Amino acid sequence: xxxxxxxxxxxxxxxxxxxxxxxxxxxxxxxxxxxxxxxxxxxxxxxxxxxxxxxxxxxxxxxxxxxxxxxxxxxxxxxxxxxxxxxxxxxxxxxxxxxxxxxxxxxxxxxxxxxxxxxxxxxxxxxxxxxxxxxxxxxxxxxxxxxxxxxxxxxxxxxxxxxxxxxxxxxxxxxxxxxxxxxxxxxxxxxxxxxxxx
Length: 198
Known about the structure:
two-stranded antiparallel sheet; mainly alpha; flat
């Protein structure tokens, strides 16, 4: 018992030495790392040999990041002559106009949208929490406003959710189409078969 108390006391003393600046930097760094959540869907799709899903995610992620980059570039160009029209794109920490939408958040939520639609809520929920922390870290570190983060989240989730299709596990569900000749000479009968293991 005494040993646990000593460990707790040492931890308490060390953690009290961490100041607000260090905590802010740690949260920002975690958010920077979580922008790479797209590694999760790519790794999972490859591990189960879901090449159709991998293709869908490549299209969704590429589209998402393309829109982010074009939006940031366009709004930055507009800000050079008419900054009053694009004030929503201005970053809170340094004033440049490349904050809308949040690229970190769009990247993280692209993984959520894909995994939610393709593989279900068991993947979507935990990734939503991690992606949400990415958005929080961007606002907390004063890199983005709440509007910029919300726009990035909606863009990343929405595009990837719309582009993706539901995964059908071939070991559980099978859909097949058969054709046979009918009783008449030129007749053909098409049959659709669906089976599912429980």
